[in-house]
């Protein structure tokens, strides 16, 4: 584990202002949530880090922000400090998820195989949980006891995907769903796995939002997306709260929601320019769109928590939402990581 000096910290602007707690969706994404007094004053922003070649979405827990680069997994405290490299030389990270003690990531296809790896949040040696030379692991999620992931296999112009789970400490792999048309992102709540299919094949449930019980059982389609959709596999396209599934349609450039129990889909946001990521916390939906971060509060009120210069970067690529604030990155070859206090 190596520690690096932070390139840009505005810690003096991050004075304590109230108490925040994880939403239910954050708690299950992060393997058990807690409340924490954090230094984040509403309306303030700070560039807390600069990192080369960010490969994964940002993820955050109650105290830190984590990301993957081409030489390992890194983190920084939510309030700023020194950048810490947790592990190096363990594949090229593709997606990343957090448990209570460990960081988990997929490597896509690297060194003639695809892997799922883990490392303690404090740093150390990585351990391999799964590998394959035939299938590629992409999106990953974590709950209290298991990891869940998408694997894909190229068949001509079609990507045939499957959803799997296994215990966090390793063990038998459970197949939750198979023959899915290009699944690109997934998330979990207490009982179900939810994912977004972006492929074209209607027989494999293309252009749809799907769910299945975490313990296995027939998958179910919650919504079909009738328009073209494309994704690069590294966007945060789907998010949950207690009642709804939210998803970003990067083809139509809209954000929609549907009840988790099933029902009529609703278009929440349309006319987006370059939408890249969505997330939920404290009853609000957050999304990135080119040079801004938008928010829809539980009351329905809409606002931008930052736009243009107030985002401290000229574009917003990825976002992560948690009790420490909203964290964004600009996606350049040398990326800024900015903390916004909404």
Structural account:
With 342 residues, this protein is mainly beta. It has one domain: Neuraminidase (6 Propeller). Helices cover 2% and strands 52% of the residues. A hairpin with a 6-residue loop joins strand 23 and strand 24. It is globular, with a radius of gyration of 19 Å. The N terminus is likely disordered.
* Strand proportion: over 45%
CATH class: Mainly Beta
Count of individual domains: 1
- Total helical segments: 1
Distance, first to last CA: 32 Å
Q: Strands of the largest sheet, in order across it? A: 1-8-7-6-5
Q: Kindly state the mean pLDDT as a whole number?
A: 83
What is the third-level CATH name, the topology? Neuraminidase
- Give the % helix: under 10%
Shape descriptor: globular
CATH homologous superfamily label: TolB, C-terminal domain
User: Which ranges are low-confidence, i.e. pLDDT below 50, for 5 or more consecutive residues?
Assistant: 1-38
**Based on DSSP secondary structure assignment, what is the total number of beta strands?**
31
Largest sheet: number of strands, sense, barrel closure: 5 strands, antiparallel
The CATH level-2 architecture is identified as 6 Propeller
* Main structural class: mainly beta
Q: Radius of gyration in whole Å, from Cα? A: 19 Å
